[in-house]
C-alpha cells in the first residue's frame, strides 16, 4: 500500500487514537503513516455488532417470557458462552445451565449471585432486574 | 514510582512491546519490523473448530508471547517470563519489578480494557502492553496501539491480566533480564534465524489448516460458504475474517506490509541477498489481502452476494496463497 492510500475514514477508535500503518513512499521504501480508520473495518465491526444486538434482544425477550433467567441476557450482553462464564465464575457448565432456568435462578443464594454479578461487572440488584447502568 | 520508558506507538501490540522493551534495555537497533521478523511473527491459521463470537477462529500471526521469546532468544538476550496462579502474587511481582525501575510487558484480555472504545472490546486475550510505573492506585500503561501513554486502576489491570477464556493470559509478565547491547553481527544471525523459522511455519507446517496451505484451504471453503451457511451467516463469517485480519492496530494485510518493511531493513544488514526484491512480493500480498477485504465488505454490507462474488473472494485468497508461497520459496533459496 502506498502512503497516500492509507485510509482516513473516521472510526470510533479513530476519535481516540490513530493507528500506525506500514506503507511505502514514492521510492518504494517502507515508512509509517497514521490512519483514522477504514470503512471496510468499520462495516465489519458494525456487522458483528448488529448480530450481537439481535442476540441480546432475543435473550431479553426470552427472559421476559420466563423462558430463561437473566443470566442468558447478561451472557449475550457480555459476549460470553458457557465455557467462558464457567471459567469466570468457577461454576461447572451444567450448573450454569440449571441456573439459566428462571425457577432455579430465583432460588440462588446471594453468594452465587455475587459471583455472576462480578463476572458480568454489574450489581446483584441489576442482575436480578436485568438492568444495565453504563454508557 | 516510575521507570524510564519512552512510549513508542506501533502497528502491532506484541512486536511493539518487544521492540519497546528491547530498545529500553539497550538494544536500540531493534525496530518493530525487526522484532516482528526476527520473532517469525508472520503466520496464518484457520481453525473452524474453535469458535470466536460464533464464527471460525482465524489467526494471521503467531501465538501470543512467541514473538518476544523468539526475538530475545535469537539475539541471545536472557528473559524473565512468568505466569501466575494467584492474582496477589502477580501484582506483588509487578510491583517489585517497578520498584527496581523495570518496565514490564504484560499479556492482557481486551474485554475489560477500559480505555478502548466499547465496540472494540471482545473476549480477545492476546493483547500486550507495557506497565512502566505506579502512581497511587493507578498503573502507568504504555499501550503500543495508542498514540499516548494511558493508565489503569489496580483493579482494572488485575482484571485484564486475569481475563479468562482461550489463550488466557494468567497474569503473564515478561521483560529482558538485563541491560544488553547487541552488535550488528548478532542481528544478522538473528535475522537469518527468524527468516528460516518463518519459512518453516508457512511452508512446512503439517496440516491443511495452517501456513500457506491454510490460506488455500480457506479460499476453497469460502466458495462453499454461500450454499452451506446461507447468505447471512456467510456474511457474518466474512466480517469475522476481515475483523481478524484488520482489527485494532495492524491486521493480516498489515502484517504482510510489516514483513515487507522487515525485509527492507534486513537488506541493510545483509545486502546482496535480494531481500528488498522479495519484500515487494509481501507488499503485493498485503495489497491483495486488502482487495479481498473490500470484496468481503461488499458481501457483508449486502451490496453484492451472488455465487460469483464468493468465487471472486475465494480466488483472491488462492492467489494470495500463491504469492506468499512464491515469496517464502524465494527466501528459502537464499544462500546465506
UniProtKB/TrEMBL annotation, chain A:
<protein>
    <submittedName>
        <fullName>Uncharacterized protein</fullName>
    </submittedName>
</protein>
UniProtKB/TrEMBL annotation, chain B:
<dbReference type="InterPro" id="IPR026935">
    <property type="entry name" value="BtrH_N"/>
</dbReference>
<dbReference type="Pfam" id="PF14399">
    <property type="entry name" value="BtrH_N"/>
</dbReference>
<protein>
    <submittedName>
        <fullName>BtrH N-terminal domain-containing protein</fullName>
    </submittedName>
</protein>
<dbReference type="InterPro" id="IPR032369">
    <property type="entry name" value="DUF4872"/>
</dbReference>
<dbReference type="Pfam" id="PF16169">
    <property type="entry name" value="DUF4872"/>
</dbReference>
<feature type="domain" description="Butirosin biosynthesis protein H N-terminal">
    <location>
        <begin position="12"/>
        <end position="144"/>
    </location>
</feature>
<feature type="domain" description="DUF4872">
    <location>
        <begin position="156"/>
        <end position="331"/>
    </location>
</feature>
Amino acid at each position: 500500500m502506498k502512503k497516500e492510500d492509507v485510509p482516513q475514514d473516521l472510526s470510533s477508535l479513530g476519535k481516540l487514537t490513530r493507528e500506525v500503518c506500514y506503507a511505502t513512499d514514492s521510492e518504494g521504501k517502507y515508512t509509517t503513516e497514521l490512519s483514522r480508520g477504514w470503512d471496510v473495518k468499520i462495516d465489519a465491526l458494525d456487522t458483528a455488532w448488529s448480530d450481537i444486538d439481535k442476540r441480546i434482544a432475543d435473550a431479553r425477550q426470552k427472559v421476559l417470557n420466563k423462558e430463561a433467567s437473566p443470566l442468558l441476557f447478561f451472557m449475550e450482553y457480555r459476549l460470553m458462552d458457557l465455557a467462558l462464564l464457567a471459567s469466570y465464575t468457577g461454576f461447572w457448565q451444567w450448573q450454569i445451565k440449571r441456573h439459566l432456568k428462571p425457577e432455579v435462578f430465583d432460588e440462588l443464594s446471594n453468594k452465587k449471585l455475587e459471583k455472576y454479578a462480578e463476572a458480568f461487572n454489574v450489581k446483584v440488584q441489576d442482575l436480578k432486574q436485568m438492568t444495565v447502568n453504563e454508557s | 514510582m516510575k521507570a524510564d520508558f519512552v512510549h513508542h506507538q506501533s502497528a502491532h501490540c506484541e512486536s511493539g512491546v518487544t521492540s519497546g522493551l528491547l530498545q529500553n534495555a539497550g538494544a536500540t537497533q531493534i525496530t518493530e519490523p525487526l522484532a516482528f521478523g526476527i520473532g517469525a511473527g508472520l503466520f496464518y491459521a484457520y481453525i473452524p473448530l474453535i469458535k470466536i463470537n460464533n464464527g471460525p477462529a482465524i489467526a494471521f500471526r503467531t501465538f501470543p508471547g512467541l514473538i518476544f521469546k523468539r526475538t530475545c532468544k535469537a539475539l541471545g538476550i536472557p528473559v524473565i517470563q512468568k505466569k501466575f496462579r494467584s492474582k496477589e502474587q502477580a501484582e506483588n511481582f509487578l510491583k517489585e519489578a517497578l520498584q527496581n525501575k523495570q518496565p514490564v510487558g504484560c499479556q492482557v484480555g481486551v474485554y475489560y480494557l477500559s480505555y478502548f472504545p466499547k465496540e472494540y472490546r471482545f473476549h480477545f486475550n492476546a493483547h500486550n502492553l507495557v506497565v512502566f510505573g505506579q502512581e497511587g492506585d493507578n498503573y502507568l500503561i504504555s499501550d503500543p496501539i495508542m498514540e499516548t501513554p494511558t493508565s489503569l486502576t489496580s483493579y482494572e489491570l488485575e482484571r485484564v491480566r486475569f481475563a479468562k477464556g482461550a489463550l488466557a493470559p494468567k497474569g503473564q509478565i515478561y521483560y529482558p533480564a538485563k541491560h544488553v547491547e547487541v552488535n550488528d553481527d548478532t542481528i544478522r544471525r538473528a535475522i537469518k534465524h527468524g527468516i528460516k523459522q518463518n519459512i518453516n511455519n508457512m511452508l512446512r507446517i503439517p496440516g491443511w489448516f495452517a501456513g500457506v496451505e491454510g490460506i488455500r484451504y480457506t479460499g476453497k471453503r469460502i466458495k462453499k460458504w454461500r450454499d452451506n451457511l446461507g447468505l447471512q451467516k456467510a456474511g457474518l463469517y466474512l466480517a469475522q475474517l476481515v475483523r481478524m485480519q484488520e482489527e485494532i492496530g495492524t491486521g493480516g494485510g498489515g502484517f504482510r506490509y510489516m514483513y515487507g518493511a522487515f525485509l527492507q531493513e534486513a537488506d541493510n544488514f545483509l545486502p546482496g541477498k535480494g531481500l528488498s526484491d522479495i519484500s515487494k512480493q509481501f507488499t503485493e500480498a498485503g495489497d491483495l489481502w486488502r482487495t479481498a477485504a473490500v470484496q468481503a465488505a461488499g458481501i457483508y454490507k449486502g451490496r453484492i452476494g451472488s455465487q460469483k462474488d464468493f468465487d471472486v473472494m475465494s480466488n483472491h485468497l488462492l492467489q494470495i496463497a500463491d504469492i506468499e508461497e512464491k515469496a517464502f520459496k524465494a527466501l528459502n533459496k537464499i544462500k546465506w
